[in-house]
Amino acid sequence: MIQTGLIQSAHNDLVTDVSYDFYGLRLATCGLDQRIKVWQIDETNGTWRVEDDWKAHDAAISRLSWAHPEFGTIIASASFDRTIKVWEQTAGEIAAQPNGSASSPAGGSSSTRWVERASLVDARGTVRAVEFAPRHFGLKLASISSDNHLRVYECLEQTSLATWQLAEEVDVLRLPSSSSPSSHSVAFATPTQTHATLEGASASLVAQAIQQSQAPPAPAPSGQLAARPGLGNREADGGWALAWCKERYWGEVLAVGAGTGGAVKIVQLSSSRRPTTLLTLDPAPPLLLPSSASDSGAAGASGGTPGGAAAEDTSGRSAITSIAWAPSCGRSYHLIATGGRDGRVRIWKLAPPADSDAGLGLGLGGEMDVDGSELGGGEPRWSGSVVAEFDQHKSAVGRVEWNITGTLLSSAGNDGRVRLWKASVGNVWKPAGSIGVEQGEDAADDVDMDGHPASN
Amino acid sequence: MTTSKHLNLVPPVVEADHVEELVQSGRTTAACFSPYNKSLAVFLPPNPGSQLQGGSGEQDIYFASSEAQPSSERRLFISDTSIIFAAFQNFLRVSSTPENEWSQRDDSVRTIRKLATDYVNFTKECWIHASQATKENQSSLQFTGDHYRTLYTCLSLFVVLYVPDSGLEDAPVGDELMEWLNMHFIEPSTEEGDHLSSLEKPWEDETFWPYLLRATMRGLVKAATFFLEALSRHPSNYLRRLSSQLIPLLSDQPHLQNFAAERDFAHASRRWREKVKAMRVELTNVPESDRRDEYENWWDRLSSIVGILEGRTEVIEKVCDELGADWKELSVAWGVFADFRLRRQDLPDVVAQIVDDVPPDPTDMEDMVHASLFGGDPMKALSYASQLDPWLAAHMADIMQSLGLIDREPVEDTGLTVRDSYMLAYAEYLHSDAALWRLTAAYMFSCGEVGVQCADEVLLRVPLRLGVPQQSAGEDVTGVLTDTLRDVNAICFEYQREEVRRSVCKIAAQELMQKKEYGLAISYCSSAEDWPGLGRVVDRVLDEYIISGPENFTKYVSGIAPSLQVLNTASAAQGVFIYRLMFAVRYAEFHQRMSCQDLQEAAWDLVSIFQEETAPKSWWGVLLLDALGLLEHKAALLFSYPSACLLLRRLEEVFTRSQHGSGDDYLRMLNRKAHSTPEAALNQLQAVRLALARYFARCTMIGTGGKQFMGRRSEIPA
């Protein structure tokens, strides 16, 4: 591992997300300072220069996503101000700004400018993740917010980017879910207690943020927000994450995690029917059916939670903070990585139903089959299993990400480490290096800046 | 070549061993992969569980990579060896056709050996080059000469053991191994030899006998005989005689390469062994009392030499132990002396015994690769090679698969063969340098469906750098293609990645549109057969009229007009979008004539745009307003009576539809142009209505109306 660069003082407050554009030549960053900055790399020396910088939201920005360049130079930003905004970079001299809401021009002599094309305000909670759909599904984006709703928007007019239709809006927790026992491999029958406690979670950043920006509590259709004790911490304890399936063949499929539970749902969108859950990835499925969960026998990481809600771990200890769907790159299966408050990085292998095998459960080499029972017997089923689980972070994992070929996974956690994982030739996932932010014991030993071969 | 597995970023955020402060300060870590190369952006987002609420001050973003990107000599090495790789791929493609598969098997092996030898020679060159670099240059090398030496030793051993010359597959391997050993691991050293040869009585030196033993064991006949000759000055009669008898024995040892058939070699070897036995008899006849000089028991030493020649394993082992020789030297000596007919396939058993006693150095990947190759375990060799250098594992695996040394079937789980896995690992290493995208893709393309799709991802993300020079529109389109875009297109074509090519073209079109290179954008849209995209480009051109007026508009249209002709001749299903392009061109023509005060032609243009129904409805308002000035032209009546009627019908349609609430369909562009409301737009159009009324009045006054009009083109009949 070598350090290849540094942007000093990128933001004046904590950076909440950085996102590379399609080519990796530009970097969009955002932070608690409510600003988005777009950086451009100087390929001759590898340094980054700020190209644009503007105030984008009225609260901290949570995530950024670049649209596929086929659609232009477009960024979506999700914020704690409950909105998603769509920004387009336009040539500087364009005078007309359709919405009359142009961003302030970037500092410096920039000749480009980002224009706010749309503001999507449907969320009734802080928006925690946003991701543009793979290009073959058109200009669409999916978002998940702390109201547990997955919202998918479709751009109706690509030329102006002004009109976005809310194509789907579903409460993730209320999606028809697969019956238990859910997918797991045998190794995970025994849940493990971790160190992933939430230090001082009493009045968290996000809880405060939401309290400040909160309108009168939205009339939550489910009513569950209001009904739940400890609502104030919910924002802090939960995890909200999503990732699109990159492959076209299976239609629009997303992995979504919401709330304080540790399950990830694989959701299929369809223009002809309501979204359905193809599969639930749950490392610690309740041993009992949700209806009888009141005796808190719910498995594993949720243990010891008073008044646990059905099928949901209210401690948030197993909440999923990050999901990454690997590009399938010709593999016959999918890889999904999840990171959670339980300190675990998991790699799930999803096998889509075989064409010739519709209606038959597909067990993968003795692993437990996942029963998408809600779909009824006639439909092909997906199966999933954990192919790797790592607890090296020993504390909450905040982020997982794949490289562009799905061969290298990064995870980052509260242990101050970014860890890399890679499959060996025998297809066993193994650690492949780590990056820390501590003062090095002996910098010379740790940092091999020149890449000269280690002594041998 | 492995860099350290852990990196601490600079400047550090917390003190060593105080990582908990990170969480206490309300922060955690996060990282994001760059699609550009293998680097990661690392930053410190807020930890949602903390009490912190902003105000953390300035924050850095770090960048790190798991690999140093190839530079200087390494890049050269990579690109030069890729040529051999390409030749190899090409050979495999040709030889895998059914008619070639078996008939030319010998040829195949010969070709594989030739290419493998090319790799060996190339690593050798690179080693020499890197080793000869001056001190100043040394620092500019990414890898030391020693690194290339390890590649050289491993590859050349691999070739000796696994890619033998045609016909030698089943021949004794000892001599070849000895040659390999002597080439790479020189013992005894030249300095020792020089030192001893400068002495009058070399046997008095303590290094004399070890030198002689080692020279014998290494088959270094010249050195050994030189010092045996020196013993002709030794005071002992016995030793003088024995050493002189030993000299022809050493130089007469049969070597396989000197025989046409192994049978002859074996026969000669047996006869030679007989002579050695006779020597042993001579040796035992030396009286006990005469076996020492004042320095040494020379007899013991000479007995060891004869023991080696006799092929006594216990003697060879003992000598190796005394000399500190490693398992390699022992194994090779075994193959030359103990079992001179030792074959490749028998070597692993022998080596397995030897490494039990004299194991290889587990911390030395080079040694481990050697041991695995000697031990007949290609898989293990690859595993160690990958730790030494992904280049080595990939290229060795490539040859191994072609020879059937490793499984050719993909692992069910991954869809990758062993070779593909190592090849992809190497390709990913190459991806750490974005400039090597061509090689990255080429290596990936050789790795089955998974590799192909990985290559797709790489190709899609090659920055196109469409820094199109500003130039007059309408020039030769191919003249301004960037090299990169052309290359990507060519590679997609070569590997038949049409979907990738189209996507790249779409992106290029989008970028070109942003740069207002509309002509190029349209040609890329049509290359991608992206007709909706083409429609968007035309919309953008039409927007230019709304935003910056007719002058710029006509300029931009002149850039896209040639593509209309191209598209018209190509009969693809372009649908509605081609009409929009036609409209843009016709409308630009209209403005061109207006600016030249060619009003009569302009009027005809306007009418025919309506007549041919190329104008989108949203533009009707604008077009009708354009008619206003022409209708009010005093000098002549520019519209025929039927044409004026056509304008009136269109105008009435706009008014009627507006009353029914669909005014926006007709007035959208007019509203945008004038920044007005639909009502204001309708008011403007009232002026056109009035102008038309006056126009009809003028027509009536003139009477028949025929004279003033010039019939033209497709003028509708009255």
TrEMBL record, chain A:
<feature type="compositionally biased region" description="Low complexity">
    <location>
        <begin position="289"/>
        <end position="299"/>
    </location>
</feature>
<feature type="repeat" description="WD">
    <location>
        <begin position="390"/>
        <end position="422"/>
    </location>
</feature>
<keyword id="KW-0677">Repeat</keyword>
<protein>
    <submittedName>
        <fullName>WD40 repeat-like protein</fullName>
    </submittedName>
</protein>
<feature type="compositionally biased region" description="Acidic residues">
    <location>
        <begin position="439"/>
        <end position="448"/>
    </location>
</feature>
<feature type="region of interest" description="Disordered">
    <location>
        <begin position="433"/>
        <end position="456"/>
    </location>
</feature>
<keyword id="KW-0811">Translocation</keyword>
<feature type="repeat" description="WD">
    <location>
        <begin position="8"/>
        <end position="42"/>
    </location>
</feature>
<keyword id="KW-0813">Transport</keyword>
<dbReference type="GO" id="GO:0051028">
    <property type="term" value="P:mRNA transport"/>
</dbReference>
<keyword id="KW-0539">Nucleus</keyword>
<dbReference type="InterPro" id="IPR036322">
    <property type="entry name" value="WD40_repeat_dom_sf"/>
</dbReference>
<dbReference type="InterPro" id="IPR020472">
    <property type="entry name" value="WD40_PAC1"/>
</dbReference>
<keyword id="KW-0906">Nuclear pore complex</keyword>
<dbReference type="GO" id="GO:0015031">
    <property type="term" value="P:protein transport"/>
</dbReference>
<dbReference type="InterPro" id="IPR001680">
    <property type="entry name" value="WD40_rpt"/>
</dbReference>
<dbReference type="GO" id="GO:0005198">
    <property type="term" value="F:structural molecule activity"/>
</dbReference>
<dbReference type="GO" id="GO:0034198">
    <property type="term" value="P:cellular response to amino acid starvation"/>
</dbReference>
<keyword id="KW-0509">mRNA transport</keyword>
<keyword id="KW-0853">WD repeat</keyword>
<dbReference type="InterPro" id="IPR015943">
    <property type="entry name" value="WD40/YVTN_repeat-like_dom_sf"/>
</dbReference>
<dbReference type="GO" id="GO:0035859">
    <property type="term" value="C:Seh1-associated complex"/>
</dbReference>
UniProtKB/TrEMBL annotation, chain B:
<keyword id="KW-0906">Nuclear pore complex</keyword>
<dbReference type="GO" id="GO:0031965">
    <property type="term" value="C:nuclear membrane"/>
</dbReference>
<keyword id="KW-0653">Protein transport</keyword>
<keyword id="KW-0811">Translocation</keyword>
<dbReference type="Pfam" id="PF07575">
    <property type="entry name" value="Nucleopor_Nup85"/>
</dbReference>
<dbReference type="GO" id="GO:0006606">
    <property type="term" value="P:protein import into nucleus"/>
</dbReference>
<dbReference type="GO" id="GO:0006406">
    <property type="term" value="P:mRNA export from nucleus"/>
</dbReference>
<protein>
    <recommendedName>
        <fullName>Nuclear pore complex protein Nup85</fullName>
    </recommendedName>
</protein>
<keyword id="KW-0472">Membrane</keyword>
<comment type="function">
    <text>Functions as a component of the nuclear pore complex (NPC).</text>
</comment>
<keyword id="KW-0813">Transport</keyword>
<dbReference type="GO" id="GO:0017056">
    <property type="term" value="F:structural constituent of nuclear pore"/>
</dbReference>
<dbReference type="GO" id="GO:0031080">
    <property type="term" value="C:nuclear pore outer ring"/>
</dbReference>
<keyword id="KW-0539">Nucleus</keyword>
<dbReference type="GO" id="GO:0045893">
    <property type="term" value="P:positive regulation of DNA-templated transcription"/>
</dbReference>
<comment type="similarity">
    <text>Belongs to the nucleoporin Nup85 family.</text>
</comment>
<dbReference type="InterPro" id="IPR011502">
    <property type="entry name" value="Nucleoporin_Nup85"/>
</dbReference>
<keyword id="KW-0509">mRNA transport</keyword>
<comment type="subunit">
    <text>Component of the nuclear pore complex (NPC).</text>
</comment>
